[in-house]
Fold Tr-type G domain-containing protein.
Amino acid sequence: MFIPMLDNRSDLEKPFTDPGMWQCSICAHENDTSNLSCELCGVLRDLSLYFNNISETEAGAKRRNKYSGVSVLARSLFAPSSTKSKAIIFSDGSQDNRNATGNKQATMDALHKTYMPSKKRHINIVPFKFDTPSPDDMVTTGLKSSRNFRKAVQIKDSVDATGKKMMDSGILQTEKDTSMDPCTSAEVDKLGGTSSSVPSSNQQVTPILDHELQHLSLESKPKSSKPKIKKPASISEYKPEPWMLQSEDQEIRRQLNLAIVGHVDSGKSTLCGRLLHALGLISKKQMHKYEKEAKEKGKGSFAYAWAMDDSTDERERGITMTVAVKYFDTEKYHVVLLDSPGHKDFVPNMISGATQADAAILVVDASVGSFEAGMGVNGIGQTKEHSQLIRSFGVENLIVAVNKMDMVEHSKDRFNFVKLQLGIFLRSCGFKDSSITWVPLSAMANENLVTAASDSRLLSWYNGNCLLKSIDSLPPPHRDVSRPLRLPICDIIASITLGQVAVCGKVEAGGIRTGSKVLVMPSGDLATVKTIERDSSSCNLARAGDNIAVGLQGLDPGHLVSGGVICHPDFPVHVASRLELKILVLEITTPILVGLQFELHIHHARVSASLVKILSLLDQKTGKASKKMPRLLTARQAAVVDVKLDKEVCVEEFSALKALGRAFLRSGGNTVAVGIVTRILDEAKV
Ligand code: GTP
Ligand code: MG
């Protein structure tokens, strides 16, 4: 197998007849010489750009790292577009423009009041069960996934930031399934607990409500008349409406979806809780309650994490299982904080939340041994896996929060060691040096979070931005309003009492307005947008980039599935049952064989799939086919493959809409390959 030398990047650029152009080695698209990366697929013209800034001391490590597992195609999949970074001046200590979420409570629309009294909005992925096999296990052991969508009612006691206790009674939160049964493997309960010892949220479900919910089956086919879809119009006929094109400066604060990712126990939830507390978004009374309860459970150090981890399971085990969502404001942004689980078993949940991210904070634990664990001394650590994943989601801008600096005496040497080691890996994933901000901090000690560092040991060598300023300095996310509406459904909330349903997710393209008609895919139902809630406040419209909850009317809630897509009525998303993917195999020990069953993730969709054919192996130097129909793939190989899905999935080709054309292959509890959709081979009739 040929593995390219990283310092021979000029080979990527093939000679081309027109001297004013260069040809992409992956997709053969002809690009203007002013483009640093291919405008079609994002492949870098010259990857040596990534390595120009590496100092001599790093050079040895760079050479050692040349087989680091993410090669030319990885960079092509993760290649950044040219986003310019704007620094901003941040007025230290000013609280005026930091909105307290509590203030917004009063303006929430009825839908939100009814459905989500808790200020915490969890993206409820299927709850973790320690006594059932993980989806990945089921795939690898050849078990067929259940096609029955699980239904659950959650009645949660919740406490808002002002300390007011609220009961979500009468609220039905349908837990979507994915085509899989809930996680997870019997592996590691890090506290040694078992699911039987701790009642899961499902076990608390009121049977009567559960019964009532039966009619909300998410699996059933639409009973209402079909088809509602007109003949799809050509995308070239689409013209964005004027309200979608509202100029950027008319927006007071832009929404920034910020994923918090990193290895288990690196301090992600503590960091989020501390940040919210420092910004005045968690009251003293509430914090006192967290501290008291955490102490009683023998988990005093998790008090701040409890602001994010609010389920019994999460608190008992001291780990995050689902993605928690909170909000805060900086001077420039309204930040949607997506706190991901770090535990290996919850990578599917992490994917579902972080796939919405515009930027990310990668939290690493600086303590000796812990950083190394995240980097995967024994197998792949989640510092690496999460970095690869978020880059492949299209995230270009990254803040690396080097946490727990108090554990290493705020040592400059340790910080530099982490920066050097991790920096090499991040570059190999396709992050640009200029798009990475490194911030040493201690979440627990509130050091360098919202104000400049105060510890003299840290001050002696660090005078950069604190975390909050670094967030505010992130470049604004790109919003694609030039294409028709695409809102992939992350979560579904239904109320049988009101007969209404709401869906949550990030608008990936176009815009949506109250009163307008939308097409719900894959069912093909038409629905009317009754309400839109953006950042816990009701509003009349939302555009690409916004993370919203949409109240829909006129359709059977049972026709909604997570992984479905809300579309413009005239421009439906594709619904595919067979796909051609261009993939890059990650560090795997067992080869990928034709016939392999795996779990495929595309935006919020998660389905069982099988590898029908490996169409061609790609030469990593040129991106051209080097071998037809190989029987297997090994680590770091790139290939074009044909995959058959057990269930139809809403998808776009990567060249049409990146967010809906990225795919992740998982097997045996690991991400085995990342890729892009190059062709839809079989399209389902909707
Ligand atoms: P998962 O969500 O399960 O992946 O964990 P996490 O990354 O959210 O970590 P969490 O916030 O739950 O914290 C894990 C442990 O690290 C807790 O005991 C925290 O008290 C501790 N911790 C977090 N930040 C710091 C820090 O800055 N210094 C020290 N000493 N401990 C910290
Ligand atoms: Mg956590």
The chain has a mean pLDDT of 72. Residues 412-429 form the longest helix (18 residues). The first strand starts at residue 21 and ends at 23.
